[in-house]
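Feature request disguised as a bug report, sorry. It would help if multi-protein outputs had a clear separator. Right now it looks like this:
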Amino acid sequence: MPRHRLATIGYEGTSLAAFLSTLVDAGVELLVDVRAVASSRRPGFSKTALAANLSEAGIEYLQLRGLGTPADGRAAARAGRHDELRRIYAEHLATPEAQAQLETLIGVVRSGRHACLLCYEANPDHCHRTLVAQGVAVQLPVELVHLHPGQDEE
């Protein structure tokens, strides 16, 4: 059975230029935003600005808000309670809305397009995007790659 490609990326601590360069270098065709809240204090990473910057780089943008982490899961992640985040997110992923959006994502990956899941957290082991990718892998064989853009020099 053929394996499909799926990447993940976090933008914590990176510049927009390094972020976009990493996506382009990896051959990403579609960035799938799995943040529940697609706004950011980091310039260029809120939904509208991000979609425009991606478009200029030749990358499409899709937001699947239903795959985002609920507020209590985000609070657990910020506090470093990663086991709690995983428990909360597993419960969320079982909801009808999340399952419907997971099916949308599986369709994208199955189509052969090189998609990349986006969230804030730099470390994929501490982010729900890895749990989303694992949800895809249960139904579709995927080669999962975690992209790591360079960090800001500040």
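(second protein starts here, but nothing in the output says so)
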Amino acid sequence: MKQPTFCPLHPEFEGFLKTEIIFTENLTDRTKFNISYIRSIHNSALSHLYSFAGKLRDVNISKGGFPFASALFLPETMNSFDKEILSKLPNKYNSKINLIRDIALVHGELLLIHPFREGNGRTARMLANLMCRKQNYDSLRFELLTEEMFLTYVEAVQKCARKDYDKMTELIKFIFPD
């Protein structure tokens, strides 16, 4: 009988998996989601692989011809994100729809900014999951976003650049845990 082949986890995946467990275990109703917290997620997940883990990128990047926030202005952009969005998140939500809207806002804006050289999407998804768990919900079901829906997801992110969060809110609502 043939022995099963051991397939180790990809080092980035393993780092994010361990980090999500650690951050979930340390999550309290007083946890504040801010720039430092986001950088800590990224650093924890990727510091075993990259020297730039947890540091704002110093290079401009784009995907599919879509440019992300300029590296030159990233500190100011992240400070504005913190002041105008993250600092206004409540510790406790009085309705599920308000939580969904805030997750859509934070997720969309963080993806637009793309503050790191690598791991932005995974960091944004982990933060969205932590926002859910803080309110005693399970993780978002990102696995429901099929390949066919990926273009809708990209379009939702691009609409966030125009401060139109409706499509992202619908996507978050679609993958929100029951």
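Even a blank line would do. Unrelated, but nice: The mean pLDDT is 94.
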